[in-house]
Predict the structure.
Amino acid sequence: MTKIQRYLRTVKPYPKQEEFFEAKTTRVAYGGARGGGKSWAMRTKFILLALAYPGIQILLLRRTFPELRENHIIPLQKALNGIAQYKDSTKEFTFKNRSRIKLGYCLNESDILQYQGQAYEVIGMEEATQFTYMQYIALTESNRLSGNTEGFVPRMYFTCNPGGVGHEWVKRLFIDKRYNENENAEDYTFVPSTVYDNEYIISKNPQYVKTLEALPPLRRKAMLYGDWDAFEGQYFPEFSREKNVCRPFTIPEDWTRFTAFDYGLDMTACLWFAYPPDRSRLYVYRELYKPNLVLSEAACQIRELTGNEKIRWSVASPDLAGRRQDSGKTGFDIMSSFGLCGVMPADNTRITGWRMIRELLRDRSDGEPRLMFFESCTNIIRTLPKLTFDPRVSEDVADSPHELTHAPDALRYGVMSMGFIPGEVRERAVPDVDPFAEWREKKPVSYVRFLES
Ligand SMILES: Nc1ncnc2c1ncn2[C@@H]1O[C@H](COP(=O)(O)OP(=O)(O)OP(=O)(O)O)[C@@H](O)[C@H]1O
Ligand SMILES: [Mg+2]
């Protein structure tokens, strides 16, 4: 028996997965809930296609590299041992029949451009709701014959859960089935599955089913039963009180701390962040959330709450760089007069910032999210899950009700100031500013002088 025959003997799809394998349309989506055997179905389908159609070019995408590695590269290496060659530099499996499965990820909107001008007969978007509509459209342009498989009809496969930046377009095409004039209803198939369709989990990991059953109501509806209406309009369905909120603990000395704040007279929202030396996780450990503070008062309260903690850097609303007409000073000058000396204007690139938060809220490969909030930070915990999509600007957060935006803006400023994503390989040097040093060293603070000037 050849290795291929031996492999094929191990492939035993469950009934829903079989339906997915056999679907004949050019756009086939599978899943819609957690644990329904989506990743298994996608990669197994692609192996079968690669073996059946010599020379076929297949592209399999996930949003981030760690997910790609855990969900596909490692299992594919196991399954294809002796059947296809894996090349790490290009992340592709090449079969003896010249078929190729190329794996990729698209963290940023523009990462999709690398596939432009290429030809793949089959494209798979794993967790399609993590991709934007523009990314999907860009990929459809590469979904064409590569010249090796005459007669093959190019097609795309999707797996998905409700929620995420792509919730709207996936729901429209596969759940609501509302099509525009360039789309044909008969091209689309959706095979719903839930964890109850995955015998492997039911028998080998019943604890996982219990975890899904114990989720808070809306999340349970979406993740256990595949209810696409549960998250309607919510910007961060990834946020989960159960997962992203923790009991406060004493932050070890060697952790890096920084602060970020969104200033407005209607609300001062300041967040304190900390992360361990291995940069594996980011904690928001304190918040200041108060209306009607003038900037000098806000600066003083931030200092007081900081106490003797060493803050490596601090960022604040970039509009504080503007000069006040009355004093001729900028907001940063004023903060500096009150002992917050090196505060930097925050990067206010909104959509990139929201995307970074979304990545951080999701689970790492160890099943834990990378962003955690101490339960004492009640306002960021309250407002973040209430944010909704801006109906006018694609992928942005709605600006109303305005009260909801202050703490999330501070969070976004903080996340954007780091220059790296916890747990990701990409790392840049972090700024070493210590804006509270002057005050901590008890140098004279020109508080009174400022009031007099
Ligand atoms: N037909 C099958 N035969 C054997 N094992 C399977 C089969 N289908 C799924 N599994 C196993 O069940 C587990 C969960 O499957 P998988 O990771 O594909 O689910 P998923 O829907 O992608 O989950 P998630 O929602 O967490 O992404 C994995 O260990 C997978 O190998
Ligand atoms: Mg999966």
In short: The longest strand covers residues 282-290. The longest helix spans residues 38-52. Residues 3-225 form a domain with the Rossmann fold fold (CATH 3.40.50.300).
